[in-house]
Specification:
13% strand; alpha/beta; TIM Barrel; binds iron/sulfur cluster
Length: 399
């Protein structure tokens, strides 16, 4: 007779979806090897059934357009105060030259990652923008994306909360955009919690932006942040919310499963991080919960000791890896070189394939991109919709 774990996993495997009650049963037993091992096994089998042996990666350049932000998340090391010597808003000519350098290194994706609406909090930043003819950071961002696109890159923007009008304007130069949902838990906005001083982390606001991106047919990256004060039920609710957004709009291209690591100098420095085994367990749960269409991404620099476990847990994408810039969000965690990542992926019995910042699923459907970016993306793509081999760096290989 099948054990409870075996019968839950068989149901998930057959339906290619794991539902809330069963997910919670598994989540509360991740410390038990007799549950965690078969969970990883089934997630791995499902991943192979859905994607074969392909694990993707995007060769990118990270452009932190501004590290000013109006929010103050308790775990953030990215945002700086305007009077900090590390505060920086990139000039457009810097964006252009970095984009050109990245293109010459075979990078395709320009990842624009920046603080949320700093002009609301800082007069000095507002004046900086106005002196250059812009009223908002979002307006400036649109211009920066244009500059990078014209330098040969495919931008992907993650700028916090954007309005539908701002996303519409950005869509002209972005093949995809993103916003980590992080957590659907409103508790995290409470006193002493991670998002107390972060109005843009209100789950309802973030879900609304995901919906608007769906209405605008923007291929969208979402994700969950693990270990910021949420509980198992809230993690499952977050993953189920991402799935239901894709069920409604078909636009969620990937979900990032990102563990938070406590660091010195932040309010959450004493938080307890998830163990590597728990991270791998949540990758496996995500593979089963999210359904067949959404890629499961795990950043390789945030769990470097357990890449084999992550592969075994059903990861299908390593995210962006840059030969040009550091991970400005987690600068203490260097990205592996592409060759090294290829070695790890092959050691796990799979193949590393370079992709664009848009996956074949959305590239092959013209509704999801503006004609100009679509044309540029198609020029860089193989027939299968992955990245064409390029003269610099490691060759791509299509499935
Ligand atoms: S919104 Fe992002 S950049 Fe701003 S404080 Fe929070 S984590 Fe940092």
């Amino acid at each position: 007779m099948a054990s409870p774990a075996e019968s839950i996993l068989q149901t998930a495997r057959d339906s290619r979806r794991l539902e809330a009650e069963d997910a919670l049963w598994l989540a509360t037993r991740l410390g038990d090897d007799a549950v965690r091992r078969p969970l990883l096994e089934v997630a791995s089998e499902l991943k192979r059934e859905l994607r074969g042996d392909v694990v993707t990666v995007s060769r990118n350049v990270f452009i932190p357009l501004t590290n000013l932000c109006r929010d103050r998340c308790a775990y953030c090391t990215f945002a700086k105060q305007p009077d900090s010597p590390e505060a920086k808003t990139w000039a457009l000519d810097e964006v252009a030259s970095l984009s050109r350098a990245a293109a010459s290194m075979g990078c395709i994706e320009a990842l624009f990652c920046l603080g949320d609406k700093p002009e609301i909090a800082y007069q000095s930043h507002k004046k900086w923008l106005q002196a250059r003819g812009f009223e908002t950071t979002a307006e400036y961002l649109i211009e920066a994306c244009r500059v990078s696109f014209e330098a040969g890159m495919l931008p992907h923007t993650n700028a916090g909360i954007l309005s539908a009008d701002e996303m519409t304007a950005l869509r002209r130069f972005n093949v995809s955009m993103g916003l980590m949902l992080e957590s659907t838990s409103p508790r995290l906005r409470g006193k002493g919690m991670a998002h107390q001083y972060a109005p843009d982390k209100d789950p309802a606001v973030r879900i609304r932006m995901h919906e608007e991106a769906g209405e605008l047919a923007i291929p969208f990256t979402s994700g969950i942040l693990l270990g910021i004060g949420e509980n198992d039920e809230e993690r499952i609710d977050t993953l189920l919310t991402i799935r239901s957004l894709d069920d409604r709009f078909g636009h969620i291209q990937e979900a990032i499963i990102q563990p938070f690591h406590p660091k010195p100098g932040i309010r959450m420095r004493a938080a307890v991080a998830l163990t590597d085994a728990e991270v791998a367990g949540w990758v496996a749960l995500a593979r089963l919960i999210l359904g067949p269409d959404i890629e499961v991404q795990a950043p390789p620099n945030l769990a470097p000791e357990v890449l084999g476990e992550l592969l075994h847990g059903g990861v299908s994408d390593w995210g962006g890896v840059s030969p040009v810039t550091v991970d400005y969000i987690n600068p203490e965690a260097p990205w592996p070189a592409l060759d090294e990542l290829r070695g790890h992926t092959e050691a796990g019995g799979q193949r590393l394939v370079e992709r664009l910042p848009i996956y074949p699923r959305h590239l092959n459907d013209p509704r999801f991109t503006d004609p100009l970016v679509r044309e540029a993306a198609l020029r860089l793509a193989t027939e299968d919709g992955y990245a064409r081999p390029r003269s610099s760096g490691a060759p791509s290989e299509a499935a």
